[in-house]
Specification:
Blueprint (H helix, E strand, L loop, with lengths): L2 H13 L22 H14 L19 H13 L3 H14 L4 H13 L3 H14 L3 H17 L3 H18 L4 H17 L3 H11 L1
Helix pairs in contact: 3-4, 3-5, 4-5, 5-6, 5-7, 6-7, 7-8, 7-9, 8-9, 9-10
């Protein structure tokens, strides 16, 4: 008998066993012509996952280091809190911004608003004054001066309120901004101050400008 032929036939017969003939728990994969041990496929899977975390040269990729928040990040967060009516968290955000950049007009202005909304008028006046001191353009200073005027009025500091509102209106007109509601609010504040000071004609004129 030709044993070499018989041996070759047995080997070929083993290779050509249809998928599914072997039991599912025999430790071999199924569904393909050339079955492979399950443990070998699992090793390939592990290696593939490992390679997916490497670059072209086989060096393991590093996760990017998260950047710390900037002063502007905290300022944006603070304004978002203000819009949501959360003055305490807004104040914390603006103070974090100031810890990074103590000369930020935006952070001092936001801090002033958060304090004013909590009726902490003296602290608000201080924050608004700091915002004005660091501002370089009229568009950056009319808002803080308007806030200072409101806070001074709340404390019955009429002369200071008059000065702040008058300056805020002048700076607003120089800024070229188009915010009629804000301008009207400043004129109404000035009118109230003038009325309390007994300047009824000036108060009436301010009200007319407020529309």
């Amino acid at each position: 008998m030709n044993y070499r032929f018989l041996f070759t036939s047995i080997i070929l017969a083993g290779l050509l066993v249809p998928a599914g003939v072997l039991a599912a728990d025999d430790g071999w994969s199924h569904g393909s012509l050339f079955s492979a041990p399950n443990w070998l496929l699992e090793q390939f899977d592990d290696e593939s996952r490992e390679m997916s975390q490497m670059d072209y040269f086989g060096i393991k990729l590093q996760e990017p280091t998260p950047k710390p928040p900037t002063a502007m990040d905290h300022i944006k967060e603070g304004w978002a809190y203000l819009e949501g009516g959360n003055n305490k968290d807004a104040l914390k955000s603006f103070e974090k911004a100031l810890a990074i950049n103590e000369a930020s007009t935006e952070a001092w202005y936001g801090r002033g608003i958060a304090l004013e909304n909590q009726k902490r008028y003296l602290s608000a006046i201080d924050a608004y004054s700091k915002a004005v001191s660091f501002s370089r353009k009229p568009k950056d200073s009319w808002g803080p001066n308007a806030g200072k005027g409101r806070s001074c009025l709340a404390l019955n500091q009429l002369e200071n309120a008059k000065e702040a509102f008058t300056l805020a209106i002048s700076q607003y007109e120089q800024s070229g901004e188009e915010l009629p509601d804000e301008l009207a609010s400043m004129y109404r504040g000035l009118a109230k101050v003038l009325e309390m000071m007994g300047d009824y004609d000036g108060a009436q004129e301010a009200l007319e400008k407020a529309g």
